[in-house]
Structures are given as C-alpha cells and as structure tokens.
UniProtKB/TrEMBL annotation:
Protein name (Swiss-Prot/TrEMBL): Asparaginase
Source species, domain of life: Bacteria
A matching Pfam family: Asparaginase_II
Classification lineage: Bacteria, Thermotogati, Deinococcota, Deinococci, Deinococcales
C-alpha cells in the first residue's frame, strides 16, 4: 500500500520499477540497478534516501562488498525501492521531496488515507508507528489488513488501476520483491495468481487472484518471528 500513490500517479511506470517499490529486496546487483533507475526518474540519488543503510540480505552480495572493500550504501537497504518510489510520487504529485518520511508529509498522509479507505475503517483507526526504515508503519486489525490485500487481488473502485498495476508488477517480477531463497520469491512462480510479500516478524501478505474465480487476501503473522504463523486472517472478495 505504500507504493499505491506511486502506482496511481505514474500509470506508465515499468513493472520492474513498480515491483522494486513494493519490495523488501535482498540487495543484489539486479535489485540495485532497478532502484537506481527509479531514483533517476525523480532526479534523486542515493543521498536523498532516508531509509538508512545495512549490508545486503543476500550473502553473496554482502560478501562481494567485503571482498572489494566497499561499504554498503542506502541502495543496499531492503526498503530503498520503496523510498525511491515515494520520492517519485512526491515529484509527480507536486509535493516536496524534503521530509518525505515524516507522518505529516503529504505522501505519508495519502498512504494512511488509502489504508483506511481500502480497509473500510475510519482514518483514526489506522494507528501509526515508525518502521525500521524511518517511514510511518500503519497498524490495523488483522482482518482489516486482509481486506486490503483482497482489494489488491480483486481491484475495484477509484483505485482499481493502481491496485491492478501493483498486483501485475509483483507477480511478473517475484525476484525483485525479495531475492534468492526468500519465501515470497519462491512462492509466486509456483502458484499462478499469487502475490506474496514478507514483512517484519515473519508476517506475510498474500493476495490471491485468478481471473473469473473468487479472489482472496490472506494476512498471517507469527509471534516473536517464529516460522509457523500463529494467526491467519482471510478475506474473500
């Protein structure tokens, strides 16, 4: 949902760049190349990213940095694509890039508004915290979150075009969503019509849609990051 303002504002954005804006990527060279291309569209560079820096999640990419004596940059952060997408959304919508991670910034207010609309709850029910990459993280009841992902699998209403583009981008580029050996990247090619996205503490969002059939949104999470989800909430559309 943090990429939805981008998908709505830039309907002709290539699917690989929209996919990287939805990603928690592994920091491989393939991921970084797409992030850099997305950044360039807004006239931004890695210095404009406010996601922070960490070594690549991919062990080979991390080892290559060490081998060549290079330090990680903000591009290697797993959320760099999301931040690059927010910067482009700001430019296209006439909002300042400065302060784009602040809850009061127009792009973050728009993301919160979209969460409420798609979940079918009032905005005051969308609780904001701070994500590990410094942007607001919005909390909802599990079933309300599943309702959002059902909307992603079966788009309708004013936001249908953007939702459909996100779904198509994710399913077309599963590698960009995560990376080698990651659950979401592994699952999507095995299950036609499935878009999967891992989050913190082993939370997983899985919109599932096949044309002319019932479409589902599934949201699961596990306590303390355990591998088996302890709670799952489906929503059928």
């Amino acid at each position: 949902m943090q990429a939805l303002p981008l998908a709505l504002a830039v309907p002709d954005l290539p699917h690989d760049e929209l996919a990287i804006a939805c990603a928690s990527h592994a920091g491989t060279p393939a991921h970084l190349a797409v992030v850099a291309r997305l950044l360039a569209r807004s006239g931004s560079t890695a210095a404009d990213l406010r996601c922070g820096t960490h070594p690549p999640f991919d062990p080979d990419a991390a080892a290559d940095l060490i081998r060549h004596g290079h330090a990680p940059t903000p591009l290697h952060h797993n959320c760099s694509g999301k931040h690059a997408g927010m910067l482009l959304a700001c430019v296209r919508l006439g909002w300042p890039r400065e302060g784009y991670t602040e809850p009061s910034h127009p792009v973050q207010r728009r993301i919160r508004e979209l969460h409420a609309q798609l979940a079918g709850v009032p905005q005051e029910a969308v609780v904001a915290g701070t994500d590990g990459c410094s942007v607001p993280a919005f909390a909802l009841p599990l079933q309300a979150t599943a309702r959002i992902f059902a909307a992603l699998a079966s788009p309708g209403g004013a936001h249908a075009g953007g939702l459909e583009r996100i779904f198509q981008a994710m399913t077309a580029h599963p590698f960009l969503i995560a990376g080698p050996g990651r659950l979401d990247t592994t699952l999507m090619p095995l299950v036609p019509g499935l878009a999967a996205k891992m989050g913190p503490k082993r939370s997983t969002a899985s919109p599932y849609g096949i044309p002319d059939m019932v479409r589902w949104g599934l949201r699961s999470r596990s306590v303390m990051g355990e591998s088996a989800p302890d709670r799952t909430s489906p929503w059928r559309s």
